Automatic annotation (TrEMBL):
This is Phage holin family protein. The keyword DNA damage does not apply. The keyword rRNA-binding does not apply. The chain crosses the membrane at residues 35-52, 59-82, 102-120. Keywords: Membrane, Transmembrane, Transmembrane helix. It holds the Pfam family Phage_holin_4_2.
Length: 127
């Protein structure tokens, strides 16, 4: 159940990025198709992050330390851009038009996702 909630939060965060960042688009679709596209892209984004981000953080640990974590913004942008490429291979109309839209989109996705996660109670409640 919790994973569905996380996918939903990621889908809303991706929608916010498409609404706020020029260069990130969903194409011309009906509302129902947009929702399905956002959910599918959220799943792809989650898988890309789950598989690649730990590897990148491990291999690039020194860069994270040297840049005080700012390289994480670049890594998140590249992962969002990669998600766009994977989505297009699955014929999903989610498109990121370059690095800078991916950079700003990753910031929007991160902030909106963080804000929405504030409203989810932790699983480790001592009832």
């Amino acid at each position: 159940m919790r994973i569905l909630l996380k996918v939903g939060i990621t889908a809303v965060a991706l929608w916010a990025a498409t609404a706020l960042v020029t260069g990130i688009s969903l194409g011309d679709q009906t509302t129902g198709r947009r929702v399905l596209t956002l959910v599918a892209v959220a799943v792809i984004f989650g898988l890309v992050n789950a598989v690649l981000k730990p590897i990148i953080k491990t291999l690039g640990c020194a860069f994270y330390v040297l840049t005080l974590g700012l390289i994480g913004l670049v890594v998140n942008a590249l992962l969002l851009w990669l998600t766009s490429e994977v989505a297009q291979r699955f014929d999903l109309p989610f498109e990121v038009d370059g690095f800078w839209p991916a950079f700003w989109g990753a910031i929007v996705v991160g902030v909106v996702g963080w804000l929405l996660h504030l409203f989810i109670p932790d699983d480790d409640d001592d009832d």
